[in-house]
Amino acid sequence: MVLNQDTTIGRKPSHAIIYVKKNENKVRIRFISVKSREVDTLKRFFSGVQPSGNLTIGNYLGAIKQFVELQHEPDAEAFYCVVDMHAITVAQDPEELRRRTREIAQIYLACGVDPKQATVFIQSHVKEHAELGWLLQCASYMGELNRMTQFKDKAEGKANVNVGLFTYPILMAADILLYDTTHVPVGNDQKQHIELTRDIAERFNNKYGDTFVIPEPKIQEFGARIMALDEPTKKMSKSAESEASRIAILETPDVFKKKIMRAVTDTENSIAFDETNKPGISNLLTIYSMFADESIESLVERYHGQGYGTLKKDLVEVVTEQLSKIQQRFNEYNDVAELDKILRAGAEKASVIAEQTCNRVKDAMGLLRI
Ligand code: AMP
Ligand code: TRP
Prior knowledge:
- The chain has 370 residues and is of the alpha/beta class.
- It has two domains: 210 residues, HUPs (Rossmann fold), CATH 3.40.50.620; 90 residues, Tyrosyl-Transfer RNA Synthetase (Orthogonal Bundle), CATH 1.10.240.
- It is built from 13 helices and nine strands.
- The strands form three sheets. A four-stranded antiparallel β-sheet has the order 1-2-3-4, with no helix packed on it. A three-stranded parallel β-sheet has the order 5-6-7. Strands 8-9 form a two-stranded parallel sheet.
- Helix 7 packs across helix 8 and helix 9 packs antiparallel against helix 12.
- The longest helix is centred in the C-terminal third of the chain and has 30 residues.
- The two termini are 22 Å apart.
- Bound molecules: adenosine monophosphate (AMP) and tryptophan.
- The site of tryptophan (TRP) has 13 residues, from strand 5 and helix 7.
């Protein structure tokens, strides 16, 4: 038997999925025991970002920065997707959506995602996302979707809510489960969706026999929830109305300087990390710490006795330095043909695995394949 990359060579009675992974001419067997939730030393990371607005430093610090670090982990594979089908759960201008879809991929690369280390692709290019999405809809409950806080927030006050917005978390579960993902690097706001993914997968495994690997969220201790600059008790969001709330990754210093200098703090004028009582200053310290790669303790010590103005001024410099590097690389990746080539190759690679998983699910559920 000839073994190709990622060929599933069998499901053992012990409920295992075995893969072959060919890497640098070495063939390794990937063994996943679904039942015990124990996975061999090979990890799989999967994550996605929606092309639904200008990406913010919240997206970068909470998610994309992790993507870059994780792709270098030994014995791991990373899949990073632009989830365009999630974006259409709210109204999008078609031309703008197409433009932004490439832009997100370009930002991934500019931030340091390396297509030689990670598989980068567009969700709608791998048809199994929609297909598994449907299969899983038939294995999920209205009640569990009704509990999703993101849906409640997005649907609030709207007269007509499309069904896709409601079933969105199931499509996300399909994204994750298609790749036998072991870890999902995301910001804190996605925790509930990953818990739902685990519930759906566990229930499916119990009903139909072990089929899915149960994924874990990978949420950082710091930076998992970057707050709005003008209202630090709320999450920084690319879709919030207030421009002053966020800094876009592609924004220039003349635009974001004012936002940092005017960021809401408190009246104590003492620099300390206390997210409950000093959310504004704690948020600025988190952003500073992550961009400058300096611990919060060290920053608090260094700025002891200094005013908020000094901290903010220095933060403008730190953010300028890091974002200008990303923006410079973004401009270097402006060759559309080259970008499309990367995305096509990514989709091709992803499709091989996605098809195998989808077939496994169809077999388990009793859909006839001839
Ligand atoms: P989205 O913008 O909803 O497509 O989110 C893409 C990724 O960025 C997800 O992993 C989010 O959890 C993460 N993210 C979005 N906003 C923030 C934020 N303010 N702080 C940290 N992570 C965030
Ligand atoms: N729902 C995620 C967000 O809004 C985006 C997303 C879709 C995702 N599919 C995913 C994230 C799979 C991680 C894994 O941020």
